[in-house]
Amino acid sequence: MIQSPFRFAVIGAGLAGLTAAAGLSARGAYVDVFEKSRGVGGRMATRRAGMSPDASLASASAPRWQCDHGAPAFAAVTASFRAEVARWEKRELAARWRPTGNARELWVGAQTMTTPARSLAASLPRAIYSSTTVDTLQREHGAWRLHSAEAGWHPERFDGVVLALPAPQASRLLSTIANGESPEQSIASYAKRAIEIADAIPMSGTWAVIARFESRVELTEDLLAFSDSPLALAVREASKPARPADEVWLLHASAAWSDAHIEAQSDGVSDTLLAEFRQVSAATASAFQVHRWRYANAKRRAIEPGAESTSRNYSYWDGEIGLGMCGDWLGIQPEAAAGGVEAAWLSGMDISRRAAEAVPI
User: Are residues 25 and 124 in the same domain?
Assistant: First the structure.
């Protein structure tokens, strides 16, 4: 076990970051988590909001309903994650989902997709620094300093830093080390090595449309996959356990179409995806919202899926300077619904183990 007061900063409160923080805390480390958003979970996300019938903006007077607009579901392939999901089920944090039109064994968060992540966050000994965008890292006299756009330089100094961010965001943050001034002149070379790892895994975006319908959409399938279409996935949210009965569908654009239109206006995105869905459903949405996930999935697998091995790494850790990275882009990418939940969890577990083992006791 790590001897206190070894201190870690985990940047990013998605599932990978929260898993890493929980693992390090359980091993005795002092851990602070920094998250640019107000909430936790990353793409394990659920939106609950009023929906305007004529725009993609929320309306306070419109009906309220919900949609898992990031990762719509997750599978469990490896033995360790299957065991974790079983624990989630026992604690009523996750539930099996059996959508018509799909033979895979899938799970969703109980009540909302964010439930497992919120439970992890609540278990951490220290509060999460939410709405805190870390924009600069500096190595000074053997310790890390963090600067955020909202609060300036954080008063604490850390022995180790874990970037639980999408690869492009991790690369940008690492560049503040490589291009910055540091009393430790060799620090830039370590940062550049980590940047090479992050830059080697390009990521694709995903446009999501949350669509509400006044009556049931007459499709026999609850989960539809598309090919040769701007649409990649359509999900009937009410088919999930413990969800509202409203007829709400999640529409995910394909990676190729999303990347080609990543800077498009939201109304153009909604027009295209709703029209594609109308072709197969003959249904017209009465309200909708649009969300852009700029960095949703790795374009290639960092590690090929297969039998789990204790010698396989699902994260990056440089023990020389106490710098690590984790995320679904570093883990396996199971052939399941979009979202990479298993890969994120494996990566968070792996970085907590590797970082703890590297710490002298």
Answer: yes
CA 77 to chain centre: 18
| Same domain (yes/no): 281, 216 | yes
- Burial letters for 206-226: b for 16+ Cβ neighbours within 10 Å, e otherwise? bbbbbbbbeeebebeebbbeb
Residue 313 phi, psi (nearest 5): -105, 140
Q: Comparing C-alpha atoms, which of 244, 247, 245, 250 is closest to residue 277?
A: 250
Distance CA 330, CA 332 (A): 7
Upstream peptide bond of 166 is cis (omega within 30 degrees of 0):
no
Supply angle C-alpha 127, 129, 133, rounded to 5.
165
In this structure, the chain runs to a length of 361
Strands 152-153 and 203-213: unpaired
| Alpha helices, DSSP H, located in the chain | 15-26, 79-90, 115-123, 167-178, 187-199, 255-260, 266-281, 341-358
Task: Grade residue 55 by pLDDT with cuts at 50, 70 and 90.
Answer: very low
Token pair listed for 329: 């882009």
pLDDT digits (tens, 9 = 90+) for 257-282: 999 999 999 999 999 999 999 999 99
What whole-number distance in Å separates Cα of residue 29 and Cα of residue 295?
30
Which tens digit of pLDDT belongs to each residue from 214-249? Answer: 999 999 999 999 999 999 999 999 999 999 999 999
The values of phi and psi at residue 31, to 5°, are -125, 130
Q: Which residue has the tokens 């439930």?
A: 115
Q: Are 17 and 349 in contact (CB under 8 A)?
A: no
Confidence of residue 182 (pLDDT cuts 50, 70, 90): low
Whole-number Å distance between alpha carbons of 231 and 234: 8
Report d(CA 354, CA 30) in Å as an integer: 16
DSSP class of residue 69 equals -
Sorted by sequence, the CB contacts under 8 Å of residue 322 that are 6+ apart come out as 144, 158, 159, 160, 161, 355, 358
The CATH number that applies at residue 167 is: 3.50.50.60
Q: What is the pLDDT of residue 50?
A: 60
Mean predicted lDDT score pLDDT of the chain: 88
CATH of the domain at 101: 3.90.660.10
